[in-house]
Amino acid sequence: VLLPAVLPGDTMxxxxxxxxxxxxxxxxxxxxxxxxxxxxxxDVAKAGEESSSKRDCYSMDVESSHxxxxxxxxxxxxxxxxxxxxxxxxxxxxxxxxxxxxxxxLPTMVLCNLLPCELIFCIKGTAITGTLxxxx
Length: 136
Fold this sequence. Notes:
The protein has 136 residues and is mainly beta. 5% of the residues lie in helices and 25% in strands. The strands form two sheets. It has a three-stranded antiparallel sheet, with no helix packed on it. It starts with 49 loop residues before the first strand and ends with a strand. The relative contact order is 0.15.
């Protein structure tokens, strides 16, 4: 099933009957395949927990080494757990895990210091900080 395109800044709710299916993404109109690694929202189980990972979508042109790279961030929202944990085994818990997640499709970032001095940086809204030497 192909869902409609999600434009930058837009949101879309995934129909409940599709949440157990393999979720994959790709940019529209760039001539690349869907990413091979599906989006595993069920791996993020506790309210407030977040997970992020990188995805690669490879070119449909066999003569090109072009690919598109993006990040997937998943956050479990503050919904109650769906079932008492002592009733079911681990495999059954996976089946009954309720969706209550926000999935973000984000651009990747490359930071290159072209300044003649060391660069100290932080990314607002995250715990990411660092230092880059000249030319790195």
